[in-house]
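Why should sequence recovery work at all? Because a backbone constrains its sequence more than one might expect. Tight turns favour small or flexible residues, buried strands favour hydrophobic ones, and helices have their own preferences. The token representation captures these environments compactly. In the example below, the structure is given first.
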């Protein structure tokens, strides 16, 4: 499996070739005038008691889940796998997509599509990245005051998706 693409690399390459030559602009500059969205991937990782794994970043005052922003030409799933390897030193085969959430612009951050995947059960994760102070396992109720309200809503939906075998679409953490 490629670090850039979660599927079979040979199939991906064939799919790219099947698309034909790169699309040209009929109206010069039209593509550069389009808004740019960011995307991010994260994993809902639990311990054997069902508590959620949160990372404690050094660069912000709130907890987050393992994962991060996509790089150019990187899928959200590949970004999640890469970030988990960098942050926790773990190679995890992600499970199903649980939530796709759109979040609006927040200060310096653009609006974003956020993908949450099932990261399975890992009871002994540790921080391996200088950007992290530690990791903690908390219930969503315990984490409520230490995470953004939108992340709490998103993770509540992710747990619901995990329990039901569904995938949810949300906007700012609210199912729509």
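From this structural description, the recovered sequence reads:
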């Amino acid at each position: 499996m490629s670090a850039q693409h979660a599927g079979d690399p040979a199939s991906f390459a064939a799919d790219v070739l099947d698309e034909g030559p790169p699309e040209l602009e009929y109206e010069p500059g039209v593509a550069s005038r389009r808004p740019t969205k960011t995307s991010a991937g994260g994993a809902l990782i639990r311990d054997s008691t069902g508590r959620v794994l949160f990372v404690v970043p050094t660069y912000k005052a709130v907890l987050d889940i393992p994962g991060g922003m996509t790089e150019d030409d990187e899928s959200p799933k590949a970004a999640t796998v890469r970030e988990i390897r960098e942050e926790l030193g773990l190679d995890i085969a992600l499970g199903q997509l649980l939530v796709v959430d759109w979040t609006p612009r927040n200060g310096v951050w653009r609006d974003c599509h956020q993908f949450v995947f099932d990261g399975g059960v890992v009871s002994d994760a540790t921080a391996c990245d200088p950007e992290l102070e530690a990791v903690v396992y908390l219930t969503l109720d315990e984490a409520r005051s230490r995470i953004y309200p939108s992340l709490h809503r998103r993770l509540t939906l992710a747990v619901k998706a995990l329990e039901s075998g569904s995938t949810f679409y949300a906007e700012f953490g609210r199912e729509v």
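A few observations help interpret the result. The CA atoms of residues 11 and 57 lie 36 Å apart.
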